[in-house]
Every structure is written in structure tokens, then in C-alpha cells.
Write a structure and sequence with these properties.
The complex is a heterodimer of chains A (305) and B (312). With 305 residues, chain A is mainly α. Chain A contains 17 helices and no strands. Chain A starts with a helix and ends in a 5-residue tail after the last helix. Helices cover 73% and strands 1% of the residues of chain B. In chain B, strands 1-2 form a two-stranded antiparallel ribbon. The chains are: A mainly alpha (305), B mainly alpha (312).
Chain lengths: 305, 312
């Protein structure tokens, strides 16, 4: 058996030189994709003095942990931003999964009399939108979400495209017969959804949950629009704010009495890069494990009813 | 009377399902449909009223098409439209070629474990936010410390103030876009290649076709439907720019605006910095209307081409 499969593989195999070339193309591009992150990690471990002298170097003349020491000692700002991001990500993923899985399930059911109307209601938002300014006015003046955690959660909670993916998932992975058998056993619609449908559609829900989680973790746009309160600044947005000035960090650290000299001796560049590393670290470590769910979502994505 | 009873009977029969769509419906109402109604501000001189949302909209004075007239008499409308269209066109064309190339390369590599490893590397940029990508770009482009100027210094070239030299930015933005998108886009094409019937290649082998010939006359032709569809769908979105790319990577540098300003960043600036609410709503509505037309048009073509792949 194994000899047959080996032979089969030979059929498709590239010639040696071509294989080397293809490996080079893919390998170099993959390296280029990862390289900037490695570079930023190196910068974050560079001694501030060496950096001021030589600039950003791949092989710094002097290494240092100063940036990380500084970030951890300089008050609770990083910790607070971590807290905001984690809270928003967890809350947001739960809310969006709840809203979207219910909605998608209802419009996937043929017995739902108004399914066409509600399908269209969701679908039309993929084609046309009111734009940024009216949305901003609704969120700030009608819903009064400015400077609340909900301004970071709700705008990303529902996505018509994900609803369509979920609906496809329900129609393909949950056979009507199962729902019918549930009905015959006398289970209500909710019971059917919770005990029969949910377990079968878990892979689809997991995919959407991961897309949501990533979206919330990486979001800075809603904070840019709606958050001024320094206590509610998520990680990505904090990175933006310290980019323009270290002042933000000063104002928010416990040692607000630091003198100008101290400010000058701060490991500015390196500590900003250290924060970039700390903010992206969790994703870098987690994504190789979840990659296949994203691939699944991307390839199933285009399928419609 | 009978109709009313029938209507309420139907509501009652569907009450669980209606309850399930309720949260989503409210969300669409507040975050999609009210903003659509809110585009009337494009035809008004917006005045913020303390009495809240409705008062602000109702009390603002009608000005007809003045906001649009003002928008289109400035040079801005031309610049942002041009930039949005040209950048997106470049992204679509170059992105397509490179993504397909990567997908083909990955599918042919003999050692599948290694191919998977490369793919994981290429997928990384997809998971990073534009803020982080902005930092990455800065580590290369910073005029005093950046790597690019150091390399140029090493070869004896003058260092460049990257964040104030317009001529480099079209290239920089295209490169950054490709860096972030190619790995992710190639996933779709790789899946399509994996779905191709293997016996086709075997038949070609028997006929003595070389691997490159096989790629040219089997892989690429069979990818054509999905390529056409992905491209048409991208064309449907050509009026929408990626705000993060154009806002974070050039670091909001004012001297670069003529080559980095797109419709989305223009609308944002109108809202947050210049405060021209009416005009930026008008620009947003202009984007939505043209965008809508383009989606309908490209979908119409996709439908003619392959009914199953159309959006609707």
C-alpha cells in the first residue's frame, strides 16, 4: 500500500531545481512576513543609549532589558489597557455570538414565516451604509455611548457577512430531520436550538467566535472615535496614543512628579517597541493553533444558501 | 378584523423565532438603518442641538446640494476619488497575481510540512492590527533611526525623510498592503487548487507535460472562475479604502495627504478635525451611492458568469 502511495506522489512531484526555487520563493516571502516582528522584538531589547547612537539595528551593540523593566515599573497603564482589551474582547465575543447565532438560526429555519424579510434586513447592510458621520452621531447623541465600554463592544457586535456564513453553516450541518424529531419529542423551539442545533454547529460558531475575538483584540478605530477617558483605552489605542508622545504615559503613571531630566532619560523608543511586543505577543503565540479555523472560515465564507 | 387576527396569529406562531431575531434587528436598526436615514445631514447645515439626536437633525437648516457642490468644487473630491480608485486597482491587480503565485508555489512544494510552515509565516500579518503595522513601518522608515536610511547610508546614499517625501508613498503603501494581504488571500486560491481533480495531472504526466506546462494548462485555467469572481467582488468594493492602512502607516503626515488621502480618511478628518459635518457626510454618501452602484453592477456580471458565486 505504501509503495502505491509513494508512486502516486511521484506523479505530482516537482523536479529538484523547481522544488528548490519554489521553496525559496515561499520561504523568502514567509520570512519577510515575520521579519518586521522579529526586528521590533530586537529593538525592544536594545539598550536605549546604543539605540540613540546607532539607530535601529538588527545586531545591537548593547542589549538591555531596560525597556521591559520600565514598562512594568511605570504604573498600571499597560495593565489597565490589557484589562480593557480583555474585558472588551470577552464581552464582545459573547454578545456578538449571542446576537448573530440567534439571528442566523432564525433565518435559516424554513418554518419561520418572516425569514425572507429578516434575511433581507441583514443582507442589505452589506450593500449600503449610512457612512461614518451619521453612525457617529447616532452612537454619541442618540445612544450616548461615548466614553463607555459599550462603545467598544456594540459597533462590532453584528456583521451581516458572518450572519450569512452562520446561516449557511446551520442549513448544511443541521439536517431538518433532527429538528423534526425534536418537535415530535415535544421539545420547544428553544430546547431544540440549545440541545440539538448548537452542538452540531459548534465548529461554525467557533470559527465566527475566533473572527470576533481577533476583531475586538485588534480594534482601535472605535476607541479613536468614541473614547477619551484614559481609563477605557484598549491596548491598540494606547499604542497609538503613546506613539505621538510619551506624555500620555507620564500623566498616567504613578510617578507623575518625574522631572524633565527623568523624562529625558526615559527609554522612550525601546519601551514603545516593548509595548508593541507585549500587545501582539498573545496573538503571535495563539494564532498558529487557531489558524485552521480561520482558513475554514475564509474558504467556507463565499458559500451562500 | 380577520386580517388582524391572522397577523397576530402568525406573530404568535413565530414568537420564538421573532424573539431570536430581536437583538440583531435592534442592532441593524441603530447601527445601520438609522445612520442611513441620518444621511439627510448631507443636505443640511448640521447644527448640534442640546435637545439630542432628533432635534439636531430636524433643526438643522436645509441647504439642498450645497455640501455636494462645495465638495466637488474643491480639488479634494478629485484627489480622494483618484487615490481610492488607483490604490485599490493596484491592490486588486498586483495582489491577485502574487496571491495566485503563492498559492501555486505552496501547492507544488514537495515537502507538505514545510509548505504548511511557510503558510503559517505568511498568515501572520493578517492577525496584526494596522497600529502595529504602523510601528513596523516606522522601524524601517524613521528618518533618524530607521533601517532603510541605515542601509542607504551604508552604501553612501543620502538619507531620505520618508514621512515627508510624497513620491515614495504609492510604492510604500502598495508594498505594505501586499505584505499584509497576500498570505491571507492565497488561502482561498490554495483551497481551490487542492480541490482540482488529481487525475488531470496524472493524465498530463502520461502525455509528457512538464510541471510548468501542467500549471499553465491545468491549474491556472481551472482557477479562472474563482479568480474572476474574487476580482469582480473586489471591484464592487473599489470605492471603499482600508482606513487603517491609509491612516496608520503614513502616520497622518499632512505633507503626504495628496498621495495618501482616500475617501475614508477624508470623511474621518471632516468629522474629527475640521468639523465639516455636512460636507463629510456628503462625501460618505457619495461613497455609499457609487459603492452601491458598483456592487450591483459587479454582482450582475458575476451572476451572468456563474450564478452560484453571485452575492445575491
Amino acid at each position: 500500500m505504501s509503495s502505491i502511495t509513494r508512486k502516486e506522489r511521484d506523479f505530482h512531484q516537482l523536479s529538484k531545481p523547481l522544488n528548490v526555487l519554489f521553496n525559496l520563493i515561499a520561504g523568502i516571502f514567509a520570512f519577510l512576513c515575520v521579519f518586521p516582528f522579529l526586528f521590533v522584538v530586537i529593538i525592544s531589547f536594545t539598550d536605549e543609549g546604543a539605540l540613540a547612537r546607532d539607530g535601529y539595528r538588527l545586531f545591537p551593540s548593547k542589549w538591555s532589558l531596560g525597556a521591559y523593566r520600565y514598562v512594568f515599573e511605570s504604573g498600571d497603564m499597560l495593565l489597565r489597557s490589557y484589562g480593557v482589551t480583555i474585558l472588551v474582547t470577552v464581552l464582545g465575543t459573547i454578545v456578538s455570538l449571542l446576537f448573530m447565532s440567534f439571528y442566523a438560526y432564525a433565518i435559516s429555519r424554513k418554518s419561520f414565516r418572516y425569514r425572507n424579510f429578516f434575511s433581507f434586513l441583514a443582507f442589505f447592510t452589506m450593500l449600503f451604509n449610512g457612512g461614518l458621520v451619521p453612525t457617529y452621531i447616532v452612537v454619541t447623541q442618540l445612544l450616548h455611548l461615548k466614553d463607555t465600554i459599550w462603545a467598544l463592544v456594540l459597533p462590532l457586535a453584528v456583521n451581516a457577512f458572518y450572519i450569512m456564513i452562520l446561516r449557511t453553516f446551520y442549513t448544511t450541518s443541521v439536517p431538518d430531520a433532527i429538528i423534526e424529531s425534536g418537535k415530535i419529542d415535544g421539545a420547544g423551539e428553544f430546547r431544540i436550538f440549545l440541545t440539538l442545533v448548537l452542538p452540531l454547529s459548534l465548529p461554525g460558531l467557533a470559527t465566527i467566535a475566533l473572527f470576533s475575538t481577533l476583531g475586538y483584540w485588534n480594534d482601535w478605530f472605535n476607541a479613536l472615535l468614541y473614547i477619551d477617558d484614559p481609563n477605557l483605552v484598549p491596548l491598540q489605542s494606547m499604542l497609538m496614543r503613546i506613539e505621538t508622545s510619551m506624555q500620555f504615559l507620564l500623566q498616567n503613571s504613578q510617578n507623575s512628579s518625574l522631572s524633565i531630566e527623568a523624562l529625558r532619560s526615559m527609554p522612550q523608543d525601546t519601551s514603545r517597541m516593548a509595548m508593541v511586543v507585549l500587545a501582539t505577543g498573545p496573538i503571535i503565540f495563539a494564532y498558529p493553533f487557531f489558524q485552521r479555523y480561520f482558513i475554514q472560515g475564509l474558504t467556507v465564507g463565499a458559500v451562500k444558501e | 378584523m380577520r386580517m388582524a387576527r391572522e397577523f397576530f396569529g402568525n406573530i404568535n406562531k413565530n414568537k420564538v423565532m421573532l424573539f431570536m431575531v430581536l437583538p440583531g434587528t435592534l442592532w441593524f436598526l441603530f447601527f445601520s438603518y438609522l445612520p442611513m436615514l441620518g444621511t439627510v445631514i448631507a443636505f443640511k447645515e448640521y447644527r448640534f442641538s442640546r435637545d439630542g439626536f432628533w432635534a439636531s437633525i430636524v433643526n438643522s437648516k436645509w441647504v439642498g446640494l450645497d455640501n455636494f457642490k462645495f465638495l466637488f468644487t474643491t480639488n479634494d473630491a478629485y484627489i480622494i476619488t483618484r487615490n481610492t480608485l488607483l490604490y485599490n486597482a493596484a491592490f486588486i491587480i498586483v495582489g491577485l497575481v502574487l496571491s495566485v503565485l503563492m498559492a501555486v508555489v505552496l501547492s507544488e512544494i514537495v515537502n507538505k510540512k514545510l509548505a504548511k510552515f511557510y503558510q503559517t509565516g505568511m498568515f501572520l500579518p493578517y492577525f496584526l492590527s494596522w497600529v502595529v503595522v504602523g510601528y513596523f513601518a516606522f522601524s524601517f522608515l524613521s528618518s533618524e533611526r530607521g533601517m532603510l536610511n541605515q542601509i542607504m547610508g551604508f552604501f553612501g546614499a543620502e538619507s531620505v525623510q520618508w514621512y515627508s517625501e510624497k513620491k515614495y508613498w504609492p510604492l510604500i503603501l502598495i508594498l505594505v498592503y501586499l505584505w499584509k494581504a497576500v498570505g491571507y488571500n492565497s488561502v482561498v486560491y490554495l483551497a481551490a487548487i487542492m480541490g482540482i481533480d488529481k487525475s488531470l495531472y496524472e493524465a498530463a504526466m502520461i502525455d509528457g507535460a512538464s510541471k510548468l506546462q501542467q500549471i499553465r494548462s491545468i491549474t491556472l485555467p481551472l482557477l479562472r472562475p474563482i479568480l474572476t469572481i474574487m476580482t469582480l467582488l473586489a471591484v464592487g468594493k473599489i470605492f471603499y479604502a482600508d482606513f487603517g492602512l491609509f491612516y496608520q502607516v503614513p502616520r497622518n503626515s499632512g505633507t503626504l495627504y495628496s498621495v495618501t488621502n482616500v475617501i475614508d480618511t477624508y470623511v474621518y478628518q471632516g468629522l474629527k478635525s475640521t468639523g465639516e459635518i455636512g460636507m463629510s457626510t456628503a462625501a460618505g454618501l457619495y461613497q455609499s451611492l457609487v459603492g452601491f452602484t458598483l456592487v450591483m453592477f459587479s454582482n450582475y456580471i458575476v451572476r451572468k458568469y456563474d450564478k452560484d458565486s453571485a452575492l445575491f
